[in-house]
Design goal:
alpha+beta, eight-stranded antiparallel beta barrel
């Protein structure tokens, strides 16, 4: 009887401690925004909710640093695929917002953008009258 009890206790201990920190680190890394993301699609909804993501060819990237800064080789506040107007800012994971420092908000929109991770892709909302979203895929993790 003692042997069965000891064996059960030993097997339970092995199962409990067999998960490594690497498993948790991999999950955290997959859920982390830190790294470089490349633009692959955009959704310009006509205002009735029927918009869908359309693939784009672009070299536009966003890089999220672990210190809370974000940079892009394109305009963070634009729906454009162009990668010739560097912009930067800060971000908050808790709020799901990007706070660009060098965008022109002529139309009185809010001076921040939203972002979220959906199935391993980053979706950012850019400023326009309809729901406008840009989809990015991870290029590298840091």
């Amino acid at each position: 009887m003692k042997v069965k009890y000891f064996f059960s206790l030993f097997a339970t201990a092995i199962l409990l401690f067999s998960c490594s920190e690497d498993d948790n680190n991999e999950a955290n890394e997959a859920n982390s925004v830190v790294g470089t993301w490349r633009m692959v699609a955009r959704n310009l909804d006509p205002g009735d909710g029927s918009g869908e993501f359309t693939p784009v060819t672009s070299n536009k990237t966003i890089t999220f640093e672990s210190d809370g800064t974000v940079t892009s080789n394109g305009n963070l506040c634009s729906f454009s695929v162009d990668s010739d107007t560097p912009t930067s800012g800060t971000y908050s994971v808790e709020e799901g917002k990007i706070y660009p420092t060098d965008c022109d908000f002529t139309f009185g929109f809010s001076d921040d953008l939203t972002f979220e991770l959906v199935d391993g892709e980053m979706i950012t909302s850019v400023l326009c009258f309809e729901p406008c979203e840009v989809k990015y895929v991870r290029q590298e993790s840091r």
